[in-house]
Amino acid sequence: MARTLIRRVAFGVIAVLGVAVLAFLLEFVVPGDPARAIAPRAQSAAVLENIRIQLHLNRPLIVQFLDYFGELFRGNLGTSYVQRQSVTSLIGPRLLTTGWLALAGVIAEVIIGGTLGILSTLYPRLRAAVAAVNLTFLALPQFVVGLVLLLIFGFRLHMAPVTGGAGPAEIVLPALTLGLVGAPWYSQIVADQMADSLSSAYVRTAVAKGLPDRYILWRHVLRNVLSPAITMIGMDLGAYLSGVVTVEVVFGWPGIGLLAVNSLQNLDRPVVMGTVIVGAIAVVLFNLIADVLRMYVDPRTREEPA
Amino acid sequence: MLGVFAAIAIAAPVFGSPLHQNLIGGLTPTGLPLGMSWAHPLGTDALGRSELARLAFGIRTSMIVAIVSNVTSIALGAAVGMAAGFFRGPVEAVLMRLTDVGLALPYTLAALVIAGLMTAGLTRVIVIITALFWAYPARLVYGEVLRLRHRGFVEASEAMGASGVSIAARHLAPHMFPLLVTYSPLNAASAVVFEATLSYLGAGINPPTASLGNMISDGQSALSYAPHLLLVPAVAILLITMSFLLIGEGLKARNPDLKRVSWLGR
Amino acid sequence: MSAAPALADAALQVDNLRVCYAGLPAVDDVSLRVEPGQVAALIGETSSGKSSLALGVARLLPSSAVVTGRVTIAGADLAELPGREARRRRAGLVGYIAQDAMAALNPVLPVGRQIGELFRMHRGMSRADASRQAVRELARVRIDRPERVAGAYPHQLSGGMRQRVMIAMAMALSPPLLIADEPTTALDVSTQAEILHLVGELQAETGSGILWITHDMGVVAELADWIAVMYAGRIVEQGPADEVFDHPAHPYTEALLRTRRDLRTGRPGALLYQIEGSPPALSADRRGCAFAPRCPRRSEICDERPPDLTAVRPGGSPEAALPEAQVPTAPWLAACHHPEVSP
User: Fold this and answer.
1) Domain segments of chain C: what residues?
2) Lower CB density within 10 Å: C or N end of chain C?
3) Residue C320 in this model has a pLDDT that exceeds 50
4) What is the ipTM of this complex?
5) Which of C108, C113, C157, C171 should be substituted to probe chain A, the one whose Cβ sees the most A Cβ atoms within 10 Å?
6) What are the residue boundaries of the structural domains of chain A, listed by start?
C-alpha cells in the first residue's frame, strides 16, 4: 500500500510541475508588455527598460526559467503587476473564500445526489422521476442554473442577497448551484453501485445469515458504495478549489476564480500563473486525499495491479 | 423521445441558413426590443436583431462545436492513449504524465488563459475544447489497451511479424470503437455546455456572432423587461445537451446488463 | 429401529416443490428427504434445476420466482412464519455454502468479521467474544493460523481457503441442514479432495444432514449416503448411494455413470461415451418423458406419458447389504417406463 501511495504522490508532483512549466510558457505567448502593465503611464522608454531589468526579463530564457522555478520552490509566486502585492498574499485569502464555497458545494451535491440515488434504488417507482431530474441538471451549464436561481430567489422573491459578499447568507445560492449541477453524478454513481451491491452474491449470503435488511444496508452495502463516491468527491473538491470560475462570476463571489478572471483581463500575468499553479496543486492534493480515504474503505484498492 | 430531440437538434441548422440580422428594423420607436410578433416570432434582442434568427444560429454553432470538437478531442485522446498503451516504455511514461497534467488543469481557468491568446471565434472554442478534453479519453483508451494487450492476439500478431502501427490499427482499434462511441455523446454534451460557458464569459464566441452562451449574457442585462431573451437560449442549451445525453443513454441501453434482482426482503 | 422414524426428525423434507420463473417450471414437483447425519447428493447437469432447488429450499430465490410446495427443515416450516422471523430462524436451520466463495463474501470486510456477525446477531455475543468464536470456527475448518486469516480480506485468500471460510460460516450456528451448492466446482482437483475430506469429517462431528449439489458424480462418490438424480426439473432416480452407483435403474443415471467410468478407465484412443443430444429448455408443456429424445430404451409409451417415480424393487430395499442403523426410510425410486436393474 505504501508503494502505491508513493507512486501516486510522485505522479502528482510531476503533474503540478508540468502545469507550472505550461504556466511559465505563457510568458512568451500572452500579448502585452509586462513592463507596461506595471507602469501604464510611464512615458520614457528608459523607465520601462528599468522595469524590465528588474523583472529579469532581459536575461536569457533558461535563466528566467530557473529563476522562476527557484522562486516557486520557495513558495514565492511572484509579484502582481497591477497590485504591487505578492501573488501569494493575493491568492491566500481568496483561496479560503473559494474553499468555503467548494466545501459547501460538495456537501450540497453529495447530499442531494446521494439521497436521490439511494431513494431511486430503494423505491423503484421513483426511478423514472429521478432519472428525469438527473438528465435535466446534467444538461444545464453552471451559469444557467446560477442565473435562474438568482432570478427566482434573488430578484423575484428577494430571499437572498444579490450583490457580492462572502458571508453565510451569500453562500447559499452559489453552493446550491454547484449542488444541483453536481448532484446527478452522485445520484448515478450511488444508484449504480447500490444496485450492483444489492444484487450481489454477498448480499444474498448476508440474507442467508439471517441479518436484517437495515443492518445489511448499513454494514455491507454502504462500504461498497462509498468507494467510488469518495473518488468523485476528491475530484470535485480539487476541481472546485482550483476555481469555480463560472459560479463566482455569476454571483460575484470573491474567490480565486474571480481573481483569475480579473487578472486575465488586466494582463496581470503573475497572478494568473499563480492561480493556475495553485489550482493544479489543489486538484492533485485532493485526489490524493481521496485515494487514501478510499484505500481505507475498500481494501481491494490498496494494491495497484501489476 | 430520443429521436425527436435528435431531429430537432439536427434540423436547427436548417432554420439558421438565412441570415436575418436586420439591425434597424427591429426596434420600437423608443428603442426597446419588440415583443413577439409574426414578423419576429421570438421578438428581438436589445440591438434589434431577430431573436429567432440568432437562436437558430446559436444552435447551429453549438452543434458544430459539439460535433467537431468532440471528434478532435476524442481522436487526439485516443491516439495518445493507444500509443501509450501499445508502445509502453518511455513513450508510455511521457504520454501518461502529460495526460496527468491535462487532467490536473483547472478547466475554466486554463480555458480563459488560452482564450486570451487567440481571437474570438469558433476556431478558438474548438481549439480550447480539444486542448482540454483530450485527457479523459486518453486515459480511457489507455486503460482499455492495457486490458486488451493481455488477451494474446497482440503477441500473436507480433509473432507473425506485423509492424507496430498495423497491429494497433487493425486489432486494437476495432475494440476501441464501442468504448469511444459510448463516450462521445457525453463528451459532446460537455462540449456544448463548455462552449456556452466560455461564450458567456466572453472567452468563446463573441457578438455579433450568435452563440447560445453570449446570448444569455446579453439577455442578462435585459432581464427586467424581456426575460425571454435569457430563458430561450437557456432552454435551447438544455434541449440540445439533453438530446446528446439521451443518445448516450440509448447507446448504453443497447448493451443490456444482466437483470438485477435485490436480495433484500428474502 | 423397527418403525420408520417420525417425519419431524428429518433434516430436510421436501414435498412437491415447484419453482417457476415467468411461468416456466425449473423445478417440477420434487419431493425428497434428507436424514440427520446423512449426506444426500443431488446430481444433475447445468439446466436440471438443481440450483433452483437448493435456493428454493433455502428460501433464497428472488421474489420473481414462484415457489409452491412444502419445505420442512428439522420439523420447521419456514413458510408459516412471518418474514423477519423466518429469516432469523432460517439462519439457524440451514447453512448455505455457495459455489463461488469470492462473490459470496463481502470484499470490503475481513472474513473474521463476516463470521463474527453471526454470533453477534444470533447469539448476542459481544464483539470481542464473537471475534474469538470466529477464530475458533476457522480453526474448526482446519485453517492454519486462524487469527491471521480472520483479519484478512477475501481477495487475499486462496480459493480453497475462501471455501473453508464459507463452510465455517455455514456451520457456525450448527444448523441441522447444510446445503452445499457445487462448492468444489471452482477449485482444482487436489483442493477439491481436501474440501471433501473436510466436510466428511465435520459432518461426522456434528451430525447435520447435508444436501450436496453437484454435476460431477465422482466428487460425491465417496461421501454420499444417498443419491438423487435430477433431469429437466424432476427427480428421475433416487436411492441409496451404493445401489444407485452399482445398479442404476434409470437410463440417464446409467449414462452418467458410463461417461464417468470411461473418463477414468478409458484407454487412449478409445471413444468416450457421450450422451447424445442436450437437455431440454424450460417449457411449460411436456407430453412424455423429458429424457426420451436421448434415451436408448425409448418406446412409444415414453412419448405419451411422463413416467412417475416408482419403486425399483417393490417391497423394499436390500437391507441385507446395509447395517440396520442405515436403513433408509426413502425407498429406491426411478422414473422410467423401462427401468432395468442389472443383477
Assistant:
1) 249-343
2) C
3) no
4) 0.76
5) C108
6) 98-267+285-301
